Amino acid sequence: MSKTYHLTTPLNDETVSKLHSGDIVYISGTIYTARDAAHKRLVDLLDEGKELPFDIKGSIIYFVGPTPPKPGDPIGSAGPTTSYRMDSYSPRLIAEGLKGMIGKGKRNEAVTDACQKHKAIYFGATGGAGALLGKQIKSAEVIAYEELGPEAVRKLEVVDFPVTVINDTYGEDLYKIGRAQYEVK
Amino acid sequence: MREIAYKEIVKNVRDIIIYSASNLPQDALQAMKKAYENEKSPVSKEVLKQLLDNADIASSEARPLCQDTGLAVFFVKLGADVRVVGGLLKDAINEGTENGYIDGYLRASTCHPFTRANNKDTIGYNLPAIIHLDIVEGDKIEIEYAAKGGGSENVSRARVFPPAAGKQGVIDYVRECISDAGPNPCPPLTVGVGIGGTFEKAVISSKHALFRDIGSVNEDPEMAELEDEIKKELNKLGIGTMGMGGTETVLAVHIEANSCHIASLPVSVNVQCHSSRHTHITI
Question: What are the chain B neighbours of A183 within 8 Å (beta carbons)?
């Protein structure tokens, strides 16, 4: 049975071990944004032995490229982008201490294995609900790669940001469980 | 010969782009409400509710429905008795696109295919628009517009089958495409299927099929029947809203069929997410 949690970042092993595929989680606190181009740069930094632009231990990365904010707003519409494009980078970041990723769509085995091995969670946010999700973001600040525009790394403060656990630390996958329940052979 | 000012086209294009970004068209909204009523999975139903709330917020607060405000795609029918004065039609559409994306605070999503550098500084903001032009009788310009997002475009595919593949080959190909895509293209979906023509004609037909209103009936009874059959097959996949599992995976299947070469059966599947931002105007 699905449970509901309210969590505040940063996350730790104990917290993420409580979560199971299908649980609903409302996230508050600081999260960071990164998409394809930023992920490549983050992994390049690790390869070069350099420091990342934010503390990755216990952090959550949100895969999003928001619309520009209207005057007076912290951010524009900000729903998740499709996550598989980050599959080749995520395991490396998980090994460094990343505890959560927010996106939409399937992840590959390398990512789900890393989620089990290092205890991390892949959360799904509702794709196409950009206006609604953007309202849960109270502040946004570009902290790296400004030249990437929508793909720059942003530090976000969120309150009760609604997500669902897709891949947990036990190897379960909500997409597989949900589909099997309603598939007509 | 009727004269239409370049500036009038620019303004019309700008306005429909801004409006479409935050207002889901009625056909798509009704289809989503129907999906909400019919959905058997409580999880998918909850997500559909979130999407209907999102449509309300977007419309009432003039916020983009989705942060992926797409590439701007146009199908334009230019009346043979129209003369555009003050510039070229293509330039007017591009200028209107740029103005719309800037003035509406919409995301510029164009980039170089390999460097991935954003072209907005060198070419323009979210330019070039994708424009398909046809010349028809009359003294009007008809513009069909859609904002096409990347997630659903990424799962689209095309293939030229041997004629023996037949109808069953088409059904199997579409099912495979949607099944493989799973949650990625943001279901519930509209599925555009281009059949026949040449390779590129099938692809363009599958794109244009997505511009048709959801819930409208295909004028060709044979294709209307095939649309229903494919839709039923796809809803057996169990993918549900955003892949959470459910009974409502596909809102509609739209087919555009063309005559083709005796040696070929081209088939293209172009996928549209639930945020089907499409509209049309006549100038």
Answer: 236-238
